């Protein structure tokens, strides 16, 4: 018995180190595999940043309840300050899921009934509020449209933060809820739905929307680099937003960086590290570390579309290489973002960048697919050892096409204008003076040459077509070119008039 015990101890002394050695080798293999994948990710992102001319980018990858990878790339501003995982960016429409979380928290607390008419939570004078439920706002099946929200976006930019959401929400109520409409509505994406939800959060909780989000979402998820106002974010290192002017990145410091009245629909700020915490909670039934912001049933409800191909609650379902994903793009002036969750792998990805123009979108059918969407998809493909796939034209290629087209049109217009100027202002010669008489054709030419300038002035000085102002914000270079060209055509029209007068004078 004694010999057997000694033999067992001796065997253990030899086998246990071998077991530890094998376990250590296994861990090293996992670490080496992860290092190899992350090195490939770094190479991919460096290449895409160069291709798409991104000043800065921030990446977060989570799996299960842990952060796999966090890294900042490029510059946060013109001083060369590097982007870090703690650098705040504008999260755009990803903030809609934050608003949905707040509403579902209040529903779980018994303070909001998702299937109650919103008339219960907003002033009673709106007849249409009797036939729209909170759930319809969350699923964007209220019938509100996005184009109709642009005028509010433009007019509410200077509202005071304290009452901006209330003012904007009631403006939407005046616009959409004056008339009763009992018909069932299809899914239509509209910021108005989530502005009204933010207002309902304020009405029910007794707190401002911003204070509620900070206390009940940011704080329990340890989102220490997340902010509800531009001033707060700027004080804590917000990345500088950029727009592209004929292909060159130019810092933007205009009024549309932050629109207080639209905060619940897309004007919050967060870092990649903080959004990684948020994604962990979304993946783990509302739990991050020891804190829960929502029940697992609430998270499931948030992420489930009522009808495939529509809208969940702050999330949309899709596929990347036949892999089911839940995602949401985000965009505001100078900022773009994309987040994805792969439910079957408990994998989450967040990508931020600090430049955005309309040219980042995939036109004409998939305007919600932007540069960060392609990059986030590529990250998931790399993690799954799948082909990255095409990310479309590079920014240089896009601008070669755009600038080339603008150059050709400009050259043609300059040539015709110079030709008209020569006929109009040059020495009068009976052979080549181009004698001109009053006719319907001539009058039509004159009217057409002035029409562009008249239309541009009308669009710029009024909000008859708010899309024009949105285009001015998100693609200022093309709009500037259009304005210059309309002035040039008006000049051409003026010279045709002068030529006509000279011709009549010498008859």
How would you summarize what this structure contains?
The chain is of the alpha+beta class and 507 residues long. Helices cover 49% and strands 12% of the residues.
Please name the defining characteristics of this protein:
single chain, Beta-lactamase, six-stranded antiparallel beta sheet, 49% helix, alpha+beta, 507 residues, globular
The gyration radius over C-alpha positions equals 29 Å
Give the number of helices. 16
Strand content: 5-15%
Query: For the largest beta sheet, what order do the strands appear in spatially?
Result: 2-1-12-11-10-9
Helix content: 40-55%
**Global outline:** globular
Care to count the β-strands? 12
CATH architecture group name of the largest domain: 3-Layer(aba) Sandwich
Give me the CATH fold name of the largest domain.
Beta-lactamase
Q: Count the domains.
A: 2
Unreliable segments (pLDDT under 50, ≥5 consecutive)? 5-16
Largest sheet: 6 strands, antiparallel
Category by helix and strand content: alpha+beta
The CATH class designation of the largest domain is Alpha Beta
H/E topology pattern: HEEEHHHHHHHEEHEHEEHEEEEHHHHH
The H-level CATH homologous superfamily of the largest domain, spelled out, is DD-peptidase/beta-lactamase superfamily
The first-to-last residue Cα distance is 135 Å
Q: Whole-number average pLDDT?
A: 88
